[in-house]
Design goal:
Layout: E1 24-28, E2 33-36, E3 42-44, H1 58-69, H2 74-81, H3 85-107, E4 117-126, E5 129-138, E6 143-150
Antiparallel strand pairs: 1-2, 2-3, 4-5, 5-6
Length: 170
């Protein structure tokens, strides 16, 4: 357990969010719990993550959620790992909620440094329609940022986003 990577999650604490400030001590090694010296609150290493309150190993949960993200059927995961179907569905829902929170906190508030952004588009042809979909990805982190929009622009099919340089602009 490394206290230098932890910070106090208590919103009322004056040391909230300060990593490596020396205010965090180990409270319980077995249950991976820490204690803040300033506000005296005890918190888990999993606090604020999708793993909070779960008792299964994080490695198993990550494998199951990864398989789900690649389209593996819930029934196959249940059979392969001996889990309950409700457990797998709960983990899927937790992962979705957590990803939505991260998306809102980082991407929608604009707290990312968009120095290198890769923009791409795809043309989808359907019945009686043609749709263009743009996607931007931070090449350093490879995190998908947002659906840039639909519809075809005359100058560039990729919508103009702040900090995004298209091939035509180069």
């Amino acid at each position: 357990m490394n206290t230098s990577n932890q910070f106090c999650p208590n919103e009322a604490c004056s040391a909230r969010g300060q990593i490596g400030a020396g205010n965090i001590t180990i409270h319980d090694r077995k249950r991976h719990r820490y204690r803040c010296k300033i506000c005296k609150r005890i918190f888990s290493a999993r606090h604020g993550t999708m793993f909070e309150g779960l008792r299964k190993p994080m490695e198993l949960i990550v494998i199951v959620v990864t398989l789900l993200s690649y389209g593996c059927p819930v029934q196959a995961i249940v059979h392969a790992f001996g889990l309950d179907e409700r457990t797998v569905a709960s983990w899927r829902d937790r992962a979705g909620i957590h990803c939505e929170r991260i998306h809102q906190a980082l991407i929608e508030t604009g707290k990312l440094d968009l120095v290198r952004v890769q923009a791409d588009e795809i043309r989808v042809r359907g019945r009686n329609m043609i749709a263009w979909m743009g996607l931007c990805a931070v090449s350093v982190y490879m995190k998908f940022l947002r659906n840039a929009g639909e519809g075809e622009s005359k100058a560039s099919r990729t919508p103009n986003l702040p900090g995004v340089e298209t091939q035509r602009e180069k």
